[in-house]
Amino acid sequence: MQHRIALLALILCIASPITAADDSGNWPAFRGLQATGVAEGHATPVEWDVASGKNVVWKTPIPGMGHGAPVIWGDHVFVVTAVGKEDDPFLKVGLYGGIDPVEDESAQQWKLLCLDKKSGKLLWERTVHEGQPKIKRHTKASHANSTPATDGKHVVVFLGSEGLHTFDVEGKLLWKKGFGTLDSGFFRVPEAQWGFGSSPVIWGDRVIVQADVQEGSFLAALSLADGKEIWRTERDEVPTWSSPTVLETDGRKQVVVNGFKHIGGYDLDTGEELWKMSGAGDIPVPTPVYGHGLIFITNAHGGGSPVYAIRPGATGDISLKGDEASNEHIAWSRRSGAYMQTPLVYGDHLYVCRDNGVLSVIEAKTGRRTSQKRLGSGSSGFTASPVAADGKLYYTSEMGDVLVLSAGPDPAVLATNEMGEVCMATPAISEGVLFFRTKGHLVAVGGS
Question: What is the pTM of this model?
Fold first, then answer.
């Protein structure tokens, strides 16, 4: 029966765009369906122990290093990694403000791996690209930060300066496209190169990519079949690490993007700008999310670290003026913004967690904060974005502690589970199993 349901979901999705109503168990892109981070319909675990194997379905070594999250379709799990000469590539985690890149790294092999979802067995691997990286990485980054995207027929891998590559699900390269050098480093100190982090989105017959870089920022739609450019819209924007989100509301199809100089919405069919606003955080990372009829965008680094709740029918320049907290197109805004993590809309609440572990719980419709608390000891950073399922929230620290919280206005910590390795990637969820990308493994966790 499950195979029949999965097949039906595949047929429907080939014919139409992926939507948040898809409950097939697929997790097709960064944070799953439309970056919601939510997967319902199955019980998910509260406690597990990687060392003893309790509630661990499987654990598979992954060569090299990558912060891109796993994506899932049917019984296939796809993950991207960058393999250099070093067995243990340098990675500095924790709470610090250093802007320096890693110097003098060796040539890399960027690989796409396909694993069996049930067993963790490696089904195939392909070398996507090899050579000296065109851009250095940050000390907390990898050379494979972007999450792939899949629709069950295609797997799209974005490597920034090393190009966009599309395979079929059996590992055959279908097409590739280069965009030149894409440098998403610190715009105030151009020599501080940090690599690339924006992930692609598949919507219907096209691939959407966002490239906010030092020179020549753009948003583009390409044909999923052959990589031909459908439209390309230039953006007057500094480097960001955010990924686009596609929304279809009241017959309006738009690509929504975060930004510093240009948060905005673009017509999916033409790339024409629909609305825009100036931001208040100078290196946006969080991806826009949608819920309760509102688009939620958050930034950090100045201007009060804002959270914006934007109505999807917005038009024109909707920037707040002076001391305004709302206007015709912005339902509410407030301080509580996040630098690294994409926020989570679950139930009636918006969960926004800073990289120091301070979690704010906000009523999604009103903007009223219901609680604020610190996760962990305060000494560990949080880069991976949260996910939710079965009435629970999952927050993963950089040191590999996964905190399981009850959902609601004042979440309680139900358990803390140690993965035993650094964790920078956002987990995936499918049919009650959580998939964690650690520095050296992919780990499937399930059970009661």
Answer: 0.94
